[in-house]
Fold:
Amino acid sequence: MHNKTIAELIEGLQKKTFSSVELTEHFLARISQLNAQFNAVITVTAEQALAAAAKADERLAGGNAPAMCGVPILHKDIFCTDGVRTSCGSKMLDNFVPPYNATVVDNFVRDGAVMLGKTNMDEFAMGSSNETSFYGPVKNPWALDCVPGGSSGGSAAAIAARLAPGATATDTGGSIRQPAALCGISGLKPTYGRVSRWGMIAFASSLDQAGPMARTAEDCAILLNSMASFDDKDSTSVDKLVPNYCASLNNPIKGLRIGIPREYFSEGLHPGTEQAVKKALANLEGQGAELVDISLPSSHLSVPAYYVIAPAEASANLSRFDGVKYGYRCDDPKDLQDMYCRTRQEGFGEEVQRRILIGTYCLSAGYYEAYYGKAQQVRQLIQQDFDDAFKSVDLIMGPTCPSPAFKFGSKGDDPVAMYLEDIYTIATNLAGLPGMSIPCGFVEEKPVGLQIIGNYFDEAKILNAAHQFQQSTDWHKQAPEGSL
Amino acid sequence: MKWETVIGLEVHVQLATKTKIFSGASTAFGAEPNSQACAIDLAMPGTLPVLNKQAVNYAIMFGLAIDAEICQNSVFERKNYFYPDLPKGYQTTQLDKPIVGPGIVTIEGADGSDKAIRIHHAHLEEDAGKSIHDGDLPHGTSGVDLNRAGTPLIEIVSEPDISNAYEAVAFAKKLHSIVTSIGICDGEMSQGSMRFDVNVSVRPAGSSVLGTRTETKNLNSFKFMEEAIAKEVERQIDILEDGGSITQETRLYNGDTKIAKSMRSKEEANDYRYFPCPDLLPVLVSDEEINILRASLPELPDIRQKRFVSEYKLSDYDAKLIASDSSMAAFFETAATLSKNPKLAANWTMGELSAALNGANLNFSSSPVTADQLAGMITRIADNSISGKMAKVVFDAMWQGEGNADLIIEAKGLKQVSDSGALEQIVSDVLQANPSMVDDFIATDESKRKKKLGGFMGQIMKASKGQANPQQVNKILLSKLNKLL
Structure:
């Protein structure tokens, strides 16, 4: 049952081949059996899940249930879940139980999906390896000595290990696409504003975007149908009709113009990764797509700009964790200053503190223009690059990340090397564009991701191309040993 | 040396919206601590602000009232600092692109002439909560009440055009009059609806260079502001005359103890690290929206004052006094229209009623005597049913809730006797009963006889239980006495 796609599970549920309770029990059993190896799930909500599954079965029996009704999924622990601890991977929120649901969570409740639990993540989504989590690192199911990517490494690993057929995730600089690539699954970061940010704990508000993770593009489309909505509780949510993302999956891609940015095939790209990506592009060309050589000349500026803007916003977003209202508070503070300092020093991990410091510095009097002001200008240049490119192409494709999953601790001492993990994914966040990663091969027996970037609100076009690729390949069907 | 004072004001005005600027929680004053703070006000993780459109409209209305330019794409920024009553660790406010641009507020200076005070800008922002350091809290702990957190404010920043405490108070009162007249603030000073920060510096008279200024923060009454300015000016002049120099600092003035003290110096000031708030979009305002708000703008106090002079023939002084307070003005207009006697309506509104309201700590909108009731009483004064003296008795009874004037006059038997037959009888009776007074009157020299009338009037009023119409009695009495000469 765990090898079925969400689409297949939906068919089984609707035809009553199996019930949601059976399905939920199956995945709960897998989690309790296998999760210890991967540390992908940090909270299991078995009781609630079974109750929700029973309710879903009633809805299914009544007929006309929504597609997701009865399908078990996991939520990244960045989404607030009413009555269920929401830690954001941090000691700071280890004891935090929100009294409300994120809109994304509510949307799945509305459609009858079953929450199995919450997935591990880099602390406050800051990281590309899942090593910064307070709950310990997540292990890559394809190579247990390697990272799963981050920050949504828990969601990605859980799907690769068949602990759940789908999961929610978030992407601020590549946090959906990079772990999807490293774990050999499919993950989509929608256009900024497509999915509500309400109840999603903020890292960098102008970059954060929630999206689905699953094994196939079709499953991502099904999940996005539930996730995407206009939300008047999020001022940056865009009031635009949500199409049925499944409706256009089977459109032929003949004549599709695919831009291949020169800058994404430069120094630093692992030759094996390059080869796998080029083979994938050849496959699409074989289906009638046209490959167009393009340039995104400001690409090299995206990492530096990102590491000013994201920490700057984070430095303010994380100020609310001060020990006054909720979350961690240090023991026996001797005065207010001491409470602030020790609460934040003890409650936040090293990477989070580093980014708060960087952000605080960048916004300081006398430095604002040189850093934050400049970074905003760069952001416009990057947006302009994409605007120009999309005048002549429908989609842009390249590698998701420079190399396959790396070993734990191998980038630990060098934050900049870690930051370069997101060199191909960050630009889309700065521009607010949708991007996806799908499996397209292996190197050193570890998965490689193909990145597909679309124009604003062109998620359907991305999913269509990804689905067509997956119709003629079986990379997405590969499963790591020990997960079967 | 002769010194001159330079003052600039920053005025925080709480907007009278029902809900907060970024959440749906109520803004009502005086509730149980933390009972009016929702997840957004508490800065719970994952919560997001949504701008209250009414707050924006109120800010625009203020801008239109002072003839200022309205910014059609103003931007909210985050002002970062840590404090327990600031739940997010930043205040959402405006800096580079405030919603209201430069404008003008005209005040009356000490010499009675008009003076224009330039407004630098006014911006929208959220109020903070309150820290509580006393009460029943366990030793060593402080409390935080977040009911006020997120209450919408406009901060009005003046240019340093104010020359003394008198002008500062006149300016503050004018702002109070404007914001209450257009209905964007309840004007309740005691509840913190308007708070003042005063920037004060002094310089040698005639100098064009500004002196070092201090800022005294959070004054919540006109009186405290006046005192704080006077004290600060004196302090600065003393220091300078002793050869010292002024330290740029933020100060606090305690209106109860009358003590001012330094809060923090410039060196200790926060670096607020402002940057545009990524959770909020720029506030786009169309020409059409501005025009609709302009058309809906209630009458401004200056215009109302002129209208009261021309429409009701009030004196400039009376018109100004009544027009500056919109609820008083509304009360007056109703009373004047119903009674068709603006002069008496103005006198009673400004006099007896104002005094009674002040004494009871009430305002015109909560007056126990309605405009309708006052007009009814004025009608009876004007038609000579009651005398001015009796009117005061009627007024007191109305204040006590004993009903309208006619009811009270009837019940208390206060109706003035103007029936000439009845009055003639009373006068004749009094003259007959007091032959010696009549003899005395006749014997008195003609030039001094008028003074003797008072005695007869007293007797007559006593006999009529105060109800005799005095003008009529006077006439009858004179004609009867003259006949005896």
Observations:
- Chain A has a mean pLDDT of 97.
